[in-house]
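Hi everyone,

Forwarding the result from last night's run.
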Amino acid sequence: MSALIYLIACEPSGDQLGALLMKALREESNGQVEFSGVGGPLMAEAGLQSMFDVRDLALLGVFEVLPKARTVFRRVKETLVDINAKQPDILVTIDSWGFTGRIHQRLAKQGSSIPRVRYVAPQVWAWRPRRAKQLALWINHLLALLPFEPPYFTQHGLPTTWVGHPVLETGFSIGDGQAFRKRHGISADRCVIGVLPGSRRSEVTRLLPVFKETVTRLASRYPNLHVVMPSVDTVAHEVYIASGNWDVPVTVVMDAAQRREAFAAFDSALAASGTVSLELAMAAVPHVIAYKVNAVSALAFRFLTKTRFVNLINILVGHEAVPERLQGKCRPETLADDIALLLRDEMRRVAQRADFAAALSNLSPGGQRPSRRAAQVILSLLKKPN
């Protein structure tokens, strides 16, 4: 008899992780699993029929969540009704604590016997350390992506397994940049800059105007500039509209496989802070990260944060390998100078790539596929029949 696994992933990064997990769960169980829940297009391709469209739940901080609180609460209620009706053998939520945390909290208060697993540990080592104790009350097992995370949670009695980071399975190290250029009519002498403004509407709204001005400044130095802008379903419309009047040629890419090829074609990249930096590192693309949130969120983060860096590569290697241009430092003139320096200074590119390799080498326990290790843990926790 097949086990029913209920999955919830609300954002593109979680959708990608969920699709990899679904494949691994099928492999590890010899196909003896079924899926239900909430996910995006990649999980749909893997066989999940999502309860609803997750695009409206691609939210950021508390002040970005508040305007959509009614939608969030309604979807939480609908999801809980579905879980209680189906009584799955296990619940696995992937990141997006603003939504999934409410699911776990309510199930815990109900005294639900469904095993509850969270995939992706919250960054309590960076800020809000009290959340580790909160998780210990609401979930049964945590799957961590980073090697240093488990002790933050096990000290509160929460079983935690380091499974490794799924970026290692995304194929960004084997893209064909020449094929991408040929397919899109980008000549070999063109300087290709990747521009990645994020996967949330709030990110795109704040970052694209800054990135556009950055590219305009770069174009005055590099007249052969061509921008490639990989995007995702959650913000595709905004990206297409915004990129239509740039001063340089822009190629927008949506397909996941084409995204990998696009990365291989980049000479450098400018990206929103997040998992994309690890993807660029996999592709050995020298890059700069930038980020802006509303003033209140920024103040809260500055007050609560405990780390020197926000970029995972920098955290893993212990110094600023990838320039971080956040809030007031996220300015076109600064970003243009950063990218120009990477383009002209071979030693900086070599040093950054060496740091990429060092960081990525610390992302998998024993060289095992992260999704496979996660699947093994999840299957071991399945609700036992009465």
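The first helix runs from residue 12 to 28.

Cheers,
N.
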